[in-house]
């Protein structure tokens, strides 16, 4: 199985330009505690409820992305990602129920400020910018989670035996999921080539880094709910 390429192309450059913000996101204390199984359960439950709300708005952003694309192959690629999110939502509810969270707990919880800040930023970029701007704002989540998951899966320090988060970690090794991430990276690079990505590096870097910082804040929001 081939793995997504995180360090190549324009995506790789934006990832590097994000500097310490990228490290702060992918190696956040929340992630480390997931890996060693020490994350307090209230923190994970807080994350799960807010992640559901996040995914709803993420689906909206992908629907907007589809509307901004202009040829069928690209529209199909973005629609596949949209459908994956929509199909994940009921699975997310089922997973939350394993953690003692009812559907009402998940769907009716108030959005955290961090959730609002992140999702509305992405949607604002999508409405005010072009398709490349929007996909740039989406990529820290799309590819960043895959990088985090693969790092945890391959880190000798990750605990699987007796770790309540082991199933969550293992999800990120799914072949179909990783193929979808690589498809998004390919779409991103194709759009960058079509729309002068290299000449817009400063603008795109600002969008990418802002989304990365908001990802880190989302982890911290979960971590803050320790009790």
Number of extended strands: 0
User: Could you name the CATH class?
Assistant: Mainly Alpha
Quote the average pLDDT: 95
* N→C terminal distance: 40 Å
* Structural class determined from secondary elements: mainly alpha
CATH topology: Heme Oxygenase, Chain A
Major pleated sheet: none
Order of helices and strands: HHHHHHHHHHH
- Our count of helices gives 11
Low-confidence stretches: none
Q: Report the CATH architecture.
A: Up-down Bundle
GO molecular function, one term: thiaminase activity
EC number: 3.5.99.2
InterPro entries: Haem_Oase-like_multi-hlx (IPR016084), Thiaminase-2/PQQC (IPR004305), Thiaminase_II (IPR027574), Thiamine_Salvage_TenA (IPR050967)
Domain Thiaminase-2/PQQC: 21-224
Describe this structure in words.
There is one protein chain. The protein has helices at about 10-15, 20-25, 30-35, 40-70, 70-100, 105, 115-130, 130-155, 165-170, 175-195, 200-225. It has about 230 residues and is mostly helical. It has a single domain, classed as Heme Oxygenase, Chain A (Up-down Bundle), CATH 1.20.910. The model has no long low-confidence stretch (mean pLDDT about 95).
